[in-house]
Design brief:
alpha/beta; 7-stranded mixed beta sheet; single chain
């Protein structure tokens, strides 16, 4: 778990539409090696689930599998090159509820990546590493992604991801 105060600003990027948001997230997923915690923050409709869909593709989840926000089930697991654990904490109200969902066991699991929509309760906890992607509307269908990271591994991942997205600037990202 990570404390917001421990997150360093790594960079930002703007995507032009939902397809570009998914593509940027796919590139992040391709860089993951397992054990990463990707926290997705933003208002309703900011693109958190869209980002999670792209991340799943980058992790090798079959493109035919519908990745949706697990708002009511709280957690979904998808097989791929790495297991994709997708959690949505929107309905949780207290940090103690994280144990009931199994979030502590999902964090940093080898061979898996955890993406958390509405990570506020995780941000209230101390310690740990994470990559926080804050999504916000940037006019039209565009999104601005602000990237923050805690911990050496997640900072390196964020920097490599931003470099990879910059290298593919001609693809609409």
């Amino acid at each position: 778990m990570v404390n917001r105060a421990g997150l360093d600003h790594v960079g930002s990027l703007t995507t032009g539409d939902a397809a570009a948001t998914r593509e940027a997230a796919r590139r992040l997923g391709e860089l993951c090696a397992g054990g990463e915690a990707i926290l997705l923050a933003g208002d309703l409709g900011a693109g958190k689930t869209c980002f999670a869909q792209g991340l799943a593709q980058g992790l090798g989840v079959d493109a035919a599998v519908a990745v949706t926000s697990p708002t009511f089930t709280l957690h979904a697991e998808y097989p791929g090159r790495l297991t994709f654990n997708h959690a949505d904490l929107y309905r949780l109200r207290a940090a103690g509820e994280l144990d009931a969902v199994g979030v502590p066991e999902l964090l940093y699991a080898p061979g898996a990546v955890l993406a958390v929509e509405w990570p506020g309760l995780l941000l209230e906890q101390a310690g740990g590493e994470a990559l926080l992607v804050e999504l916000e509307h940037a006019g039209g269908d565009g999104r601005r992604l602000t990237i923050r990271a805690a911990g050496t591994g997640h900072r390196k991942l964020a920097a490599a991801w931003l470099a990879r997205v910059a290298d593919g600037a001609g693809s609409g990202v």
